[in-house]
Amino acid sequence: MPDVTAAAPVRRGIQTRLAVLVLVAALVPMTLLGWTSLRSLGMMRDALLQERKALVSSASHQVEHGVRAMLEALAAVPAGPDGSASLKAAQRDALRSAQLRSRLLVSAMVVDGEGSVVASGTEADPGIREELAGCAGVREAIRSGKPTVCGPATAANGPRRFAVVPLRGTSGKIASAAVGVLDLSDPAWTTLVQPMALSGSARLQLLDEGGGVLAGSGTQGSAASDVVVSERLTVLPWTVVLAQPAREMFAAVKALERRWLVLAPSLAGLAAVFAWGVSRSVKRPLATLGEATARIAAGDLTRPLPPLGSDEIGSLGRSFESMRLALAKDETRRLLLRKVITAQEEERKRIARELHDETCQTITALKMKLDVAGMEDAQAMATRSLDELHRIIYDLRPSILDDLGLLPAIRWMAERSLEPRGVKVRCEFEEIPIRLPFELEIAVFRAVQEAINNVLRHAHAETVLLEVAVDGTHLEIDVEDDGAGFDVGEVGGPSASGRGLGILGMRERMELIGGTSSVISTPGSGTRVSLRVPWPAER
Fold it and tell me: Which of 50, 105, 429, 498 has the greatest count of CB atoms below 10 A from its CB?
């Protein structure tokens, strides 16, 4: 009996493998999607930074353009060796023109090497004059000949710086400088630094060389948590800085990251549930199919397989159901065959027994009376009749088939039938490892018996070769003679003379047990009868 419980681990293994495969198939695209999303978020971060850099660069260029225009306007103020009235008038005109050209200048003036105002575009605030007189940066710029911004100094109206541009006279010497007064609290500077409104807490500022806020939005510097983007001016030691809290700048990115962190486990859970459902949907019909095949293997062919759907598993189930019906039919046919053959052989045994118990006894008694009467010829006829009756009894039911099996029975029957007629018998048998079922042995024996009877009736042979071989799936029996042979095509079926009945009988017996028979013969070349019987599967 097959072990039905052995199929359970296989079914669980199939479910596990299917679940893993489906889960991997779902998670791999999700992983790729997550990786792509993370890369996209990184690109969004980079894009935000590049946007801030572009904004700072634009503001820096704008501030630099304004400052450069202011310095160029101050550099256009004339200088001379003397303080004539015409020079001062020209300087005042140039200073007023500079103020008109640059909206960054609160006022403009010309100072000498001591910081004293010698000319002014507009009336200068006395406080400015005092600051200039005490500003060392003015004297340093005149001495070095390099433009600079000095300060800071805090006036009542806010932070103030001095833009100092040395003026070179016709002699090539620097004795004075044009000074522009810058009020960094003026809205013009805020507009220059930050021409547009910024989102949230972003601050775009102009810082001096010490990091102090000169202009822009807000007076607070950058914090440790801020993202800072900066660019230094080329004309002045100032820096344009954009500062914005990281949480604010990357708020959209963080929101997408949080959504993905929530979505990824949810998708993974759905993938796991989907994988379990798919594997379950495959496992259940497979389990049903496995139970059904286990029943079939155990010999239970009565219970039909339930419908398993219209997919591939359903098609497999229908194939197994067809196989079950075929096996049930074969089993029914085998049982019927066994009953037919058993009934046939029982009838032969009954007839043989009656012949032995009644007819043989009667002829034996007749032979004894003829012996007493001295009728020798009649006694001889009775003896021959008794011998022939014994031969018929043995042919009806050879006991050697029951006692020793198929091969000894075939050998005995061939030698007993052929050798008394002068036909030499040669047997080449391959050993059969197990005893065949009764119905197979008797069917094969009767078919071989019919072939040998045909040799006796028609072949006029001198030698008969019997071969038996087993190839693992079939039992093959060949009966070959060197007799007269015949044209197989002319023997299409049994005739009125009885010719062809033997071939038909062999074919019918082989078909009853699922085997085949073939006859190969040509006139003058002998005959070969081949019987091929399928090896019983349960053996």
Answer: 105
